[in-house]
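User: For my dataset I need records formatted as: sequence, then structure tokens, nothing else. Please produce one.
Assistant:
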Amino acid sequence: MVIKVFLASSSGSTAIKKKQQDVVGFLEALKVEYTPLDIACNEDNRMWMRENVPSEKKPSNGIPLPPQIFNEEGYCGDYETFFNAKEDNLVYSFLGLDPPPGSKEALQAEKSAVKENGTHVEETSTEENLDKSRSEEVPVEERNGKAHREGEEQDTIEEVEGEATEDRAVGLEEALAEGEEEEAVEETEDAEARAGEYEEEEEADEDKEEEELRQLEEDE
């Protein structure tokens, strides 16, 4: 695609010259290739420009003034529309060209696309979440009943564990008591056995003393 810029090289209007320089200078800064077509020195260019500018874009006298901009045969606009596009960072769209990657216009287009897609996705996700929450919603009575049952089960478990703990404590006390009784019995039996042995020893000593006394009496 070729961008055509219709100019008047020998125009006596300072305003027209300034507008032409503004358009050409900006296109060169953007490195957009264009073809300048002089209407002052070429009657064919002048006639073609006048015939292809849309009637609604022509001034009241029917004679459009340069600069006029075209993309091949398609009309882009005059200086005023070009200036507005430049202010809005939409010159490539104005010229009917794709903005190069990294340009302000390309970044702006990407942000707009992301915003539109993100809003659409967000709305869709919100609707899906609402449907999901409705399908998964549990009646209050059912939630309360479930919580009550869980509380009763927990109380039962605690009671069983408490009873088991008490039983183990009682068992330990009984075992300790039985052990103490057995030890006491054993100590009593040992004491009785020792007492019996002591008595036997005393009886033997007495018998020995009596025997010695009898022996002395016989000797006398």
